[in-house]
Amino acid sequence: MSIIREIRRRVKSAVPPFVFMLLIAYFVWNATQGDRGLRAYAGRVEDLKAAQADLARADAELASWERRVSSLRANRLDPDALDERARSMLNLSDPGDVVIFYGQGKRLY
Are 41 and 47 in contact (CB under 8 A)? Predict the structure, then answer.
């Protein structure tokens, strides 16, 4: 009888530390592997870097378009430059124009 009593006493004294160790293991696992753990944090950092790169590309494209559009405003528009650019893009010329041909691969624009 004393052996069974001793076994029960040791089991009862071992259960609380075992439960606390399981609880600590649960929190450690969630801190590394969980939805808000270290691995998820690393993934969010990578997503943030990609989003910042996309934002930088979008800002550069926006600045490019703003430069192109600002040159078309009425107070800054040069009619001669507009005529020259339109003729170049449409591949047309005026009968009184002097046309200089460029070789293959040597485009003006």
Answer: no
